[in-house]
C-alpha cells in the first residue's frame, strides 16, 4: 500500500508532494488528469505568478471558519512559504510592494521547480489520469483537484463529487460561484468605450447601499467592466447573492484626484460658450467618455465623479480566477483532514476559502498543502 496518493497536480497538490518529500516521504503517487501538471499555475499573474503576499491578512479571505483559517495561515503563512521556495525549491523571490513573485517573473520557474523537486526524488506524476473515485490504495489520500474557476485548466468542480462520495451531507458544502471575475452591464451607452482603461475609484452599491470601494484601473469591455479593482468588487458581490440582490451598480469616480467643486470650476472654465463640449473636456478624460457623460446630463463634474454603471451579474467560471464556496473549512481539522474521514485530506481551492487578488489564493494553496503534508508526515513516522 502506498503512503500517500495526491489527486491533482496543480499548485496545492504539487506543493503537498514537495513538502512530504522534504520530510523524507517518497512513497507518493500524484495523479493529474491533464497531459501535463500545473496548467493553471502557468496562467497565474499573467504568466508571472504572484505566488504570495508579504502582508496577508486572514480577515480578507471569504470562508466559513475564519478562526481556523487564521490559525493555518499563522502557522504556514508568507515567511515559511518564502523560506521553502528559496531554500528547498531554490526559487529566488522578488517583491513589488507586498506582492511576491519568482525573481524571474515567470510562472514556469515555479512550476519547473516544484516538478523537478518531485521527479528528482523519484516520485512519479502520472498524467492523463482522471481519478473518479476514492479507493484505499494509499494510507492517506489528498484531494487537491481544485475548484471550478478556469475549467479548461482541469478544475471543473469534479472535486466536489469526489468529496461528496464520502461526505454525503449536502450542508458540508457552501454554494459555489465565480469570483475574482468581471461584471456584466446592460448599459448600452458604454459599449463604444470597450478597450478604454482609466484610473478610477469604484464604489459598489447593492440594494442602494454602498458596500465596498476599490481604487485602480477600470477597463471597459464589450460586456461590461473589468480590471483588478472590478474583480476585487466581485468578491463582495458574491457575498450578497445569498442575501438577495435587488439592484446593483458601480459608481466610478473618474477624476479621483480632484474634489467635485474644483472639477466643476475646471469644467466651467473650459465650456463657457457651450460649444463642442466633449472636445474641450478631453484634456480631463478621453473624448469618447466625455461624449457619454454629456449625453447623460448637464452636471458634468457630478457625472465625472459619479459615473454609474448598472451591473446585471458577474461573468462565468470560464473567466473567473477563483471559486467562491466549496467544502466548508469547518468540516475539516486544522490539518485539513476530513473530520469524519481522517485519512483523507482536502486542500487548495476545493475548500471554501478564497482571497482577493495579490497572491492570496496561491498562498492558501501552499499553506493548506503544508498543513496536510506536515500532519501526514507526523502520522507516518
Ligand atoms: C487566470 C488566473 C490567474 C491567477 N493568478 C493568480 C495569482 O497571480 N496569484 C494567486 O494567488 N492566485 C492566482 N490565481 C488563483 C490560483 O491559481 C488558484 O487559486 C490555485 O491554482 C488553486 O490551486 P489548487 O491546487 O487548489 O487547484 P488547481 O491549481 O486548479 O489544480 C487542480 C489540479 O487538479 C487536476 N484535477 C482536477 N480533477 C482531477 C481528477 N479527478 N483527477 C486528477 N486530476 C484532477 C486539474 O487538472 C488541476 O491540474 C489565478 C487563477 C487564474 C484562473
Could you explain the architecture of this structure?
- Strand 18 and strand 19 form a beta hairpin.
- The protein is of the alpha+beta class and 381 residues long.
- The radius of gyration is 24 Å and the shape is elongated.
- A 7-stranded antiparallel beta sheet has the order 15-14-11-12-13-10-16.
- The mean pLDDT is 96.
- It is built from 12 helices and 20 strands.
- The chain has helices at residues 11-22, 39-43, 66-75, 78-88, 107-120, 158-164, 228-241, 260-270, 277-281, 287-296, 300-305, 360-380, and strands at 2-7, 28-31, 52-53, 62-63, 93-96, 99-102, 124-126, 138-143, 173-179, 183-184, 197-206, 209-220, 224-226, 248-253, 307-310, 313-314, 322-327, 337-338, 341-346, 353-354.
- It starts with a strand and ends with a helix.
- Helix 1 crosses helix 5 (107-120) and helix 1 runs parallel beside helix 12 (360-380).
- It folds into 2 domains: 2-178 and 322-380, 3-Layer(bba) Sandwich (FAD/NAD(P)-binding domain); 183-314, no CATH class.
How are the elements arranged and paired?
Elements: E1 2-7, H1 11-22, E2 28-31, H2 39-43, E3 52-53, E4 62-63, H3 66-75, H4 78-88, E5 93-96, E6 99-102, H5 107-120, E7 124-126, E8 138-143, H6 158-164, E9 173-179, E10 183-184, E11 197-206, E12 209-220, E13 224-226, H7 228-241, E14 248-253, H8 260-270, H9 277-281, H10 287-296, H11 300-305, E15 307-310, E16 313-314, E17 322-327, E18 337-338, E19 341-346, E20 353-354, H12 360-380
Parallel strand pairs: 1-2, 1-8, 2-7, 8-19
Antiparallel strand pairs: 3-6, 4-20, 5-6, 9-17, 10-13, 10-16, 11-12, 11-14, 12-13, 14-15, 18-19
Helix pairs in contact: 1-5, 1-12
The protein binds flavin-adenine dinucleotide.
Amino acid at each position: 500500500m502506498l503512503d500517500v496518493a495526491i489527486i491533482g497536480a496543480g499548485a496545492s497538490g504539487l506543493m503537498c508532494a514537495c513538502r512530504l518529500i522534504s520530510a523524507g516521504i517518497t512513497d507518493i503517487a500524484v495523479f493529474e488528469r491533464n497531459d501535463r501538471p500545473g496548467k493553471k499555475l502557468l496562467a497565474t499573474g499573467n504568466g508571472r505568478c504572484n505566488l504570495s503576499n508579504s502582508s496577508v491578512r486572514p480577515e480578507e479571505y471569504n470562508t466559513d471558519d475564519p478562526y481556523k483559517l487564521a490559525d493555518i495561515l499563522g502557522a504556514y503563512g508568507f515567511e515559511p512559504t518564502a523560506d521553502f521556495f528559496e531554500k528547498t525549491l531554490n526559487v529566488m523571490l522578488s517583491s513589488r510592494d507586498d506582492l511576491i513573485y519568482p525573481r524571474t517573473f515567470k510562472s514556469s520557474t515555479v512550476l519547473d521547480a516544484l516538478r523537478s523537486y518531485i521527479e528528482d526524488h523519484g516520485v512519479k506524476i502520472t498524467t492523463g489520469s482522471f481519478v473518479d473515485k476514492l479507493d484505499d490504495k494509499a494510507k492517506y489520500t489528498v484531494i487537491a483537484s481544485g475548484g471550478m474557476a478556469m475549467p479548461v485548466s482541469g478544475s471543473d468542480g469534479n472535486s466536489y463529487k469526489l468529496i461528496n462520495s464520502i461526505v454525503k451531507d449536502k450542508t458540508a458544502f457552501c454554494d459555489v460561484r465565480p469570483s475574482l471575475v468581471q461584471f456584466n452591464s446592460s448599459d448600452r451607452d458604454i459599449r463604444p468605450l470597450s478597450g478604454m482603461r482609466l484610473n478610477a475609484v469604484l464604489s459598489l452599491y447593492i440594494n442602494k447601499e454602498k458596500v465596498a470601494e476599490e481604487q485602480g484601473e477600470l477597463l471597459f469591455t464589450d460586456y461590461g467592466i473589468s480590471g483588478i479593482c472590478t474583480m476585487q468588487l466581485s468578491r463582495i458581490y458574491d457575498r450578497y447573492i445569498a442575501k438577495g440582490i435587488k439592484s446593483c451598480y458601480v459608481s466610478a469616480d473618474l477624476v479621483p484626484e480632484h474634489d467635485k467643486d474644483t472639477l466643476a470650476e475646471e469644467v466651467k472654465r473650459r465650456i463657457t460658450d457651450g460649444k463642442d463640449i466633449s472636445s474641450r473636456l478631453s484634456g480631463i478624460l478621453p473624448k469618447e467618455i466625455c461624449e457619454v457623460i454629456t449625453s447623460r446630463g448637464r452636471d458634468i463634474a457630478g457625472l465625472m465623479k459619479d459615473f454609474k454603471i448598472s451591473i446585471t451579474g458577474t461573468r462565468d467560471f470560464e473567466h473567473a480566477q477563483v471559486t467562491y464556496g466549496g467544502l466548508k473549512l469547518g468540516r475539516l481539522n486544522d490539518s485539513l483532514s476530513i473530520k469524519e474521514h481522517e485519512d483523507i485530506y482536502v486542500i487548495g481551492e476545493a475548500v471554501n476559502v478564497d482571497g482577493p487578488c495579490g497572491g492570496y489564493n496561491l498562498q492558501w494553496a501552499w499553506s493548506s498543502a503544508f498543513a496536510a503534508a506536515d500532519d501526514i508526515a507526523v502520522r507516518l513516522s
